[in-house]
Amino acid sequence: MRLLDWVVLLGTLGFIVTYGVWKTRGSKDIEGYLKGDNSMKWWTIGLSVMATQASAITFLSTPGQAYEDGMRFVQFYFGLPIAMVIISITVIPIFYKLNVFTAYEFLENRFDLKTRSLAAMLFLVQRGLAAGITIYAPAIILSTMLGWSLNVTILIIGLLVVIYTVSGGTKAVSVTQKQQMAVMMGGMLVAGYMVVHYLPQNVSFGDAVAVAGKMGKMNVVDFSFNWDDRYNFWSGITGGLFLALSYFGTDQSQVARYLGGKSVGESRLGLLFNGLLKIPMQFLILFIGVMVFVFYQFNQPPVFFNEAAKSLVYATPYAGDLRQLEEEYTTVFEQKQQAVHGLVTALRGEDEAAIASAQQQVETLTNSAKGVRDEAKEVIRQATPEAEVRDTDYVFISFVMKYLPTGLVGLLLAVIFSAAMSSSASELNALASTTVVDIYKRSVKQQGSPQHYVTASKAFTVAWGAVAILFAMFASLLDNLIEAVNIVGSIFYGTILGIFLVAFYFRYVRGNAVFLAAVLAELVVLYCYYRTDIAFLWFNVIGCVCVIVFGFVLQPFVGKKGVKV
Amino acid sequence: MEDTNPVDTEKPLAKPPFFKSWSGMYWLVLGNLGFLILLFYVLTKVYE
């Protein structure tokens, strides 16, 4: 990193943190601290909702995913706009009418305290783990690429977030997310322009898209139905809908964003803004990944994108094996580069036979290159058994560090730090508000002064920040932690959504029945997880439907405890 | 003393800025989704 990169990175982050603290100083009561005095306009809500969902991993992993798997991940978001409409029509007016601070507060009004506490505790456990991962996941990649200590990187991200989240509460989270979204989208657009700009002069943008298509990367929509296929139209439009309903309707880290709105209308517009722009935004990020893939058809990629992991192998007896594979990779790449140029020429000539022949040649050489890459990964695994051999998360950052000019490297790093900070801030703010409103104020100290609850909220924000930082620091000691947290999230989201859908739409079902139904639904989801190969997105549908069905079946047998709203 | 903004729950169905009713906004979002899926389908078919 050059001096200019440091200036851009530190200047951007310093400005956002200072602005957040200055702009939101002086919240004196819990209404102001946890709901931002209901002063947020729709564009602030919309950007805040988008920034909360866009974590650093969005910008690190998504281009890498497109590099490996093409554009099809965008289908994961097809259910999101429908969820935004449903939440705008039904959820927002009810939350506003009850003037709740958290989503779980509503469950006590509708059912009983135990259902509220169950949902709040599930959220705290799940989101508490996720907050650590939100910091850890980008920190491990950034520390590797920048040569920084992992713990120092974790501390930098964690402390920056805690400073302004403690100082200004919900409003600070929302106002800083506007700046962060501007940095994120500006940085990605610049990166997208640069990667196209760096294509060879005789390869146009149209040629690049055509090459990506012939190499299977423009697979945006797939209408074929397959239960085991993680990303297709059907899993996106149904599983994605249920996941988005759960996330935006019941997860406090998102609910807090729109509960701070000036009115029902402002909150609705904020969510609909997200419904309009989320898919184009994800498409853009994936498309940048595809363009990076095309770029590496004309410029040699490393055999393994995590250079730090490779460096460790060079210090072992396996160094010779790895270097030999790198030479083989270079030879295959040079042949493939010629073949891709041949494909471009064939595509311009619109000669179907020539295109098919060139495509066949490119495919063969791509498979050869993949074979060499797999062998290199095996050597790395043997030389350093603890090394992570999945390197797709390093594809985009590796391109940024190696090819972007001075200044833009700092800007793109600011994008990734901003994304880590924006989602972490929402999580810490939501964890603190749920702890104070649903546990502390409800069950521990009910008669405190407004100032007391603000102080308690700040203390819990610091405490959850410390938990997240500590968890992130110890995360590397546990195997498959990220995968475990993602699976836990998927397993519980459907059930929580089921509880909320029963609360909103099925007044016949009361507290005891929905509580038992939630327990049984969870058992069904766990059975599906352990005993079937069903893709994880479907767990959201299964858990939700089971809560509703079991609730109706059990209601006649378990009494009528619980009141209607 | 700082200004506070009381929650506007009295007008939950106030008109959105771009349409006469909220239904228009909802159909805009759903129509945009349909348009994007169609566009993506065309992209997939053209470039496969």
TrEMBL record, chain A:
<feature type="transmembrane region" description="Helical">
    <location>
        <begin position="459"/>
        <end position="478"/>
    </location>
</feature>
<dbReference type="InterPro" id="IPR038377">
    <property type="entry name" value="Na/Glc_symporter_sf"/>
</dbReference>
<feature type="transmembrane region" description="Helical">
    <location>
        <begin position="117"/>
        <end position="142"/>
    </location>
</feature>
<comment type="similarity">
    <text>Belongs to the sodium:solute symporter (SSF) (TC 2.A.21) family.</text>
</comment>
<dbReference type="Pfam" id="PF00474">
    <property type="entry name" value="SSF"/>
</dbReference>
<keyword id="KW-0915">Sodium</keyword>
<feature type="transmembrane region" description="Helical">
    <location>
        <begin position="74"/>
        <end position="96"/>
    </location>
</feature>
<keyword id="KW-0812">Transmembrane</keyword>
<protein>
    <recommendedName>
        <fullName>Transporter, SSS family</fullName>
    </recommendedName>
</protein>
<feature type="transmembrane region" description="Helical">
    <location>
        <begin position="6"/>
        <end position="22"/>
    </location>
</feature>
<feature type="transmembrane region" description="Helical">
    <location>
        <begin position="148"/>
        <end position="169"/>
    </location>
</feature>
<keyword id="KW-0406">Ion transport</keyword>
<keyword id="KW-1003">Cell membrane</keyword>
<feature type="transmembrane region" description="Helical">
    <location>
        <begin position="231"/>
        <end position="250"/>
    </location>
</feature>
<keyword id="KW-0472">Membrane</keyword>
<feature type="transmembrane region" description="Helical">
    <location>
        <begin position="42"/>
        <end position="62"/>
    </location>
</feature>
<feature type="transmembrane region" description="Helical">
    <location>
        <begin position="513"/>
        <end position="530"/>
    </location>
</feature>
<keyword id="KW-1133">Transmembrane helix</keyword>
<feature type="transmembrane region" description="Helical">
    <location>
        <begin position="181"/>
        <end position="199"/>
    </location>
</feature>
<feature type="transmembrane region" description="Helical">
    <location>
        <begin position="271"/>
        <end position="296"/>
    </location>
</feature>
<feature type="transmembrane region" description="Helical">
    <location>
        <begin position="536"/>
        <end position="554"/>
    </location>
</feature>
<feature type="transmembrane region" description="Helical">
    <location>
        <begin position="484"/>
        <end position="506"/>
    </location>
</feature>
UniProtKB/TrEMBL annotation, chain B:
<keyword id="KW-0472">Membrane</keyword>
<protein>
    <submittedName>
        <fullName>Uncharacterized protein</fullName>
    </submittedName>
</protein>
<keyword id="KW-0812">Transmembrane</keyword>
<feature type="transmembrane region" description="Helical">
    <location>
        <begin position="25"/>
        <end position="43"/>
    </location>
</feature>
<keyword id="KW-1133">Transmembrane helix</keyword>
